[in-house]
Amino acid sequence: MKHFLLSLLILSVLCACSGTSEPPKSEQPLDSNQQIISLSDIHFDPFFDNTLYPVLAKADIADWDSIFNTSSITPTYLDPNDNDTNWFLYKSTLNDLKTRNFDPPFLIITGDLLLHNMQRRFDASVSEADRLSFTIKTMDFVYLQLESVFPDTPIYAALGNNDNFMGNYSIEPGGDFLEGIADTWYRSIKANVDSVTFYQSFLANGSYEARVNNDHKILSLNTILFFDGYPVTSVAEESVYTNAITSQLIWLRDQLEAARATGQKVWLIYHIPPGADVYKTVSSKALSKNWTSSSNQVFLELVREYQDVITAQFGGHTHKDSFALIQNEDRSTPISFIHTTPSISMSNRNYPGYHHIKVNADFEVLDYDAYFLSNAQNYASARWEKEYSFLEAYDITSYTPESLWTLREKLNSDTTLQKQYINFFNVSYYRPSSSPNISAASWKAYWCAMGNQDFAAFEGCWK
Ligand SMILES: [Zn+2]
Questions:
Q1: Which long-range contacts (CB under 8 A, 24 or more apart) does 118-126 make?
Q2: Got the DSSP string for 333-393?
Q3: Which 8-state DSSP code applies to residue 236?
Q4: Strand, coil or helix: 203
Q5: Of 112, 169, 188, 329, which sits most exposed with the smallest number of CB within 10 A?
Q6: Average model confidence (pLDDT) for the chain?
Q7: CATH fold of the domain at 29-274+298-433
Q8: First CA to last CA distance, the chain
Q9: Which H or E element spans position 340?
Q10: Cα separation of 52 and 450, whole Å?
């Protein structure tokens, strides 16, 4: 494995020096009114028609779309297996992105590109090597399809808890899965960081930095390592994970410090956000944490220390359209926001959705438009359409920590506005009657979590 990595690094350096790659689209500064595309929780399911598996396993991913098109199952956007994203839904999403003629300077994907619990879906007779190969091919296919719509546009993704080979929430630092997907992930960021730097952090713990232009950079964090309840099965493994967690947090601090020194602004993208897992907290009636207390605390301290550097944070994981705020230590001022883009997958009973986000030349978020697949439960009548524009829908003039804080206060007292927020939270729903989301009884927990990422502060607000 060591020899392989070394040759990979040497090869990448050679490729970077050969001068054959096209100049990155993002060499130019952002102009004042560009819009980026934010996707999350795609959860692509290659098993939606499992009769195709033997053909797919042998085929090149360049042929997968034509193989999927031979499926004889009746087209539906609701995957009968798990409500994740089958070929019909992914194709429809890509087609919508294409026909709208967006021209984003880059795309972000806040994790979970692969279906839920992929490894459980293989037939028991499939060998481990073949499972690994098929898992990596599935990831590559998701990218290849997106790149066919945006061939010159950098794609910055973060790893989700289903993007792995070892089982849910188990991304192995330095493991075969990271090694297997690294080339595709590097290719898609369009050489916006040198390859040695990328492979070093990505192979070690799944994080990386990418330069958007001279003034702006994106840090993609692997927050699965921070997950409270990270599966550790042996003492030997535990030290590997502990080292990966510590090294990622040190890396994050170094990155933020370097950015400050050169006057760069930074976006953080990740899958699992900090703070409470509200869904589990509500159902268990006791605090459930997204991250361990120590990772959560160190991270919040870093955000506070580098609030002049970080202009936005983007998370996923909940599959819901929402925002959350981080306050300064004495909780007198909101200093940073976490924007959450909803899922393409319908597994959490929301319609598929994505965001088209307005950004200014200072790398600040101005506003966003939400798009969704309305009536997705009905293949024939489903339509992609604009759901809403944020500032217009909430009648506010900016998307900043301060204005979102004021909006959060208003949402607690204005029941009409609150109803609208809950509707958009669920991407206008597809299955309202069984939706286990925000109710009158659980509103307080969701509202407290919108403003408090420290666990003690959340509990103080909620109880
Ligand atoms: Zn997900």
A1: 118/162, 119/165, 119/166, 119/167, 121/47, 121/50, 121/81, 123/53
A2: SEEEEEEE---SS-TTSS--EEEEEEE-TTS-EEEEEEEEEETTTSTTT-EEEEEEEHHHH
A3: H
A4: helix
A5: 329
A6: 90
A7: Purple Acid Phosphatase; chain A, domain 2 (3.60.21)
A8: 51
A9: strand 334-340
A10: 43
**Bridge pairing between strands 322-327 and 334-340:** antiparallel
Q: What is the pLDDT of residue 172?
A: 81
Read off the tokens for 335. 């200093």
State the amino acid at position 213 in one-letter form.
N
Q: Judge contact between 430 and 377, C-beta under 8 A.
A: yes
The pTM score is: 0.92
d(CA 180, CA 134): 11
> What is the distance in A from the centroid of ligand 1 to the CA of 277?
13
Of 9-18, 147-156, 166-175, 330-339, the poorest mean pLDDT is in: 9-18
The residue with greater pLDDT, 4 or 396, is: 396
- Measured in Å, residue 318 CA sits from the centre of ligand 1 at 7
Cα of 81 to ligand 1 centre, how many Å? 15
C-beta neighbour count of 199 within 10 angstroms: 23
Could you give the CA distance from residue 322 to residue 213 in angstroms, rounded to a whole number?
A: 28
* Alpha carbon of 349 to ligand 1 centroid (Å): 12
- Residue 275's nearest CA partner among 454, 462, 442, 405 is 454
Q: How far is CA 293 from CA 168, 180, 181, 297, 454, in A?
A: 21, 31, 30, 6, 9
- CA 319 to centroid of ligand 1, rounded, Å: 6
Per-residue confidence (pLDDT) for residue 232, from 0 to 100: 62
Percentage of the chain surpassing pLDDT 90? 79
Q: Which two tokens stand for residue 352?
A: 């598929």
Place of tokens 């998370």: 315
pLDDT at site 28: 63
